[in-house]
UniProtKB/TrEMBL annotation:
Signal sequence, renumbered to the chain: 1-22
Gene3D superfamilies (alphabetical): Lipid/polyisoprenoid-binding, YceI-like (2.40.128.110)
Protein name, UniProt field: YceI-like family protein
Superkingdom field: Bacteria
Short name of any one Pfam family annotated for the protein: YceI
Domain Lipid/polyisoprenoid-binding YceI-like as annotated: residue spans: 24-194
Protein keywords: Signal
Upper classification of the organism: Bacteria, Pseudomonadati, Myxococcota, Myxococcia, Myxococcales
Species of the source: Corallococcus coralloides (strain ATCC 25202 / DSM 2259 / NBRC 100086 / M2)
Keyword Transcription carried by entry: no
Length: 209
């Protein structure tokens, strides 16, 4: 059965609001980073970073719970400001970056957690192991334009994981008791995103024939 023009227009009018507030964003690697902290010798925290953070966010401001995020960290960029330690962290004892060069996160659920706060649950894949984790997110911030006309938004996400859950079990026992490297790791993601052009406003492809 063919749909009348009037019916088609009515359907589009009803459906339009569900798309009007959805937007696509790309993580800006040059202004985003991932930090971690883990206990060392049971007395202090060693902090490090991963750079070259990439990914995409589909944001629905009308219903934020319908939003999604996918992010990839470059494990080979691990930096704790100590070259020998960084080489050890890249080795098979820890991240084994030659075999597992990336760490990925893919959201499966977004829930409100208060004003400008979200709980984002998803699958974290690290060292070849995938486990569910929940990120506590502050943001996203309101839209703002930079000097070149790019629309930007940001967010900060934190979580805690056990590295042993991901097969990162290397350690050394201390004579006084305890171990050299703690199991719990605190992770913080500082993300800045740029808005992608709307498909409707993107330039049409030209026929080069």
């Amino acid at each position: 059965m063919k749909m009348s023009l009037k019916s088609a227009i009515t359907l589009l009018a009803v459906a339009a609001p569900s798309f009007a507030f959805a937007s696509a964003w790309e993580i800006d690697s040059s202004h985003s980073s991932a930090q971690f902290a883990v206990k060392h010798m049971m007395v202090s925290n060693v902090r490090g970073t991963f750079s070259n953070v990439k990914g995409n966010v589909n944001l629905d401001d009308k219903d934020i719970t319908k939003s999604t995020i996918e992010a990839t960290l470059d494990a080979t960029t691990i930096n704790t400001n100590e070259p020998k330690r960084d080489e050890h962290l890249k080795s098979p004892d820890f991240f084994d970056v030659a075999k597992f060069p990336t760490i990925t996160f893919k959201s499966t659920k977004v829930a409100k957690a208060g004003k400008d706060k979200l709980n984002v649950t998803g699958d974290l894949t690290m060292h070849g192991v995938t486990k569910p984790v929940t990120l506590a997110v502050e943001g996203p911030t309101p839209e703002t334009k930079d000097a070149w006309g790019n629309v930007r938004r940001g967010a900060v996400a934190t979580t805690k994981i056990k590295r042993s859950d991901f097969g990162l079990t290397w350690n050394k026992a201390l004579e006084a008791g305890g171990v050299a490297v703690g199991d719990e790791v605190t992770i913080t993601l500082d993300l800045e995103t740029t808005k992608k052009p709307d498909a409707a406003s993107a330039p049409a492809a030209t026929d080069k024939k």
